Amino acid sequence: MAHTSEYPGGSQGPAGALGVREFAGVRFRYRIGSVDERVLDDQYHGPRFFSGGYQPKDTDTILDAGAHIGVFTALAARQAPRGAVYALEPARENFDILRANVVTNGLDHVFAHRVALSDTTGSIRLYHGPQSWGHTLMVPPPTTKATFEEVPSQTLEDFIAEHGIQMIDYLKMNIEGAEYKIFLGAPAHVLHRIGFMMVELHPAEDALVEELLAWIRSAGFTTDVVWSDDPTVKGWLTAARQR
Known about the structure:
It is a single chain. By secondary structure, the protein is of the alpha/beta class. It is 26% helix and 30% strand. It contains eight helices and 13 strands. The strands form three sheets. A seven-stranded mixed beta sheet has the order 6-5-4-10-11-13-12, with helices on both faces. A hairpin with a 2-residue loop joins strand 2 (18-23) and strand 3. The longest helix is centred in the middle third of the chain and has 13 residues, at 92-104. The N and C termini lie far apart (40 Å). Residues 1-11 have low confidence and may be disordered.
């Protein structure tokens, strides 16, 4: 990976300041000394989000829910140069970097939206995690002094309707626990517009996980879950809909 800096004299600058790094042929702005450095790593993206049998076509429509600073977004855009990539990221600071990365790299077929997928359309609190990739819609325990920001929210049904999306060929979702409400609240006809999905499942009661899997299977998907020993991750779900 090539490292450059926005600071004079080649300094990498203080932690949290913006630097520039080249990754997979794309130039990314990122926060120095933060988890941004981890997501700019082959070992992070390779096994998570382009696996499980999905073979992208250059005209695919891809939805990246929980886009963070846009690393997967940019990788997906390169896989589908004649398609469309919708990048959803509700946190203001993350979104501003995401948008800068889209513009800097001339990704004209990427559409970045500052919105949280949820089970309601309107406005919702996004609680800040200790790291920028851990922001969540899930209400923290009362003993936790979490800061938050109010962000726009939309259901999956409303989002695809507003943007006239007929088919999502690939859905990548990493949204810190909101996946259960989103999918369980989505009508079957919405799920029928998804061809393939990769969803990071976050800790939840086994009964809720089974309810989610059953609902997705009832919509015509075959599913596979790689369970995790990491206490912050329940597992990774891949689901392909038989057409």
